[in-house]
Specification:
Layout lengths: L1 E2 L13 H10 L4 E4 L8 H5 L8 E12 L2 E8 L6 H27 L6 H5 L9 H10 L6 H9 L14 H10 L3 E4 L2 H4 L6 H10 L4 E6 L4 H13 L3 E5 L24 H15 L1
Parallel strand pairs: 1-2, 2-3, 5-6, 6-7
Antiparallel strand pairs: 3-4, 4-5
Helix pairs in contact: 5-6
The structure holds adenosine monophosphate and manganese (II) ion (3 copies).
Length: 283
Amino acid sequence: MIDLHCHSHHSDGTDTPERLALLAEAAGLAALCLTDHDTLGGIPDFLAQQSKVKVRLLVGIELSCRFLGRSLHVLGLLVDPADALFQIRLAELRGRREDRNRRLFLRLAELGYPLTREDVQAQADSPLLSRVHVARALAVKGFVRRPQEAFERLIGDEGPAFVPREELSPAEAVRWIREAGGVPVVAHPGRFAGGAFHWDEAMQDLQREGLEGLEGYYGEYRAAEQRYFVELGRRLGMVITGGSDYHGLNKPGIRLGSGRGGLRVPDALLEALEAQQRRGAWN
Ligand code: AMP
Ligand code: MN
Ligand code: MN
Ligand code: MN
């Protein structure tokens, strides 16, 4: 069993990278890929654990893109953490996130919920501030009872305080990831759209933009969704990946490796992913 999608407290998870490596070892995983949003800040501490554990520790990233007017998440699996251009590009993304946060705080103040950057930073263990930390700060200030209520009433994608972030196009995300030696993968397509959505067409459009894989196994999928996306990936000749999207206490009920309990991501997927990475390196 492997897990190719999880977050540390360097983005919106609550565990240290060291603890993630130890949890993966305890869960008996063969490999774990750390995929924080917009940052490789947790990678040095994560890789430093490799001498102490048998589980293979792999490097990844999760980027947000604009697709069909909505936010589509793209994983960059097996990117090179020493790639200087990629680090500069990620710093640019974090700058855009800071711009968004400033406008978000302004919007919240206008709606009667004043928060300072310091209020929000107090809820985070790293400089990257996400809406998860904003939600917690709103709860600490007593503006909402629980962080989840902040998403429901204010800062969720459809909420009155929602401020969009300037996002990459899928083609840009693909280029950044490939130039850093990684494999670009559509993260949790079932969360972008499920049900009646015409995934065949949309996924083929994404393939034309350069997306090489899709997340067929996911911590929050039901059995039918997993079957659907694994089959879709096979039909389109895409690499299939899988992970829990573990966020620690920020996503209660999701465990590293096993998701809600039933997730089993086969080891063989990693071999196919690495073969795809080698093919990419020749192009
Ligand atoms: P950001 O990248 O700062 O825009 O924050 C996005 C993060 O907020 C996501 O990765 C989720 O962890 C979280 N999030 C977004 N929408 C919701 C929601 N409706 N309920 C709970 N968490 C959410
Ligand atoms: Mn997240
Ligand atoms: Mn995501
Ligand atoms: Mn994620």
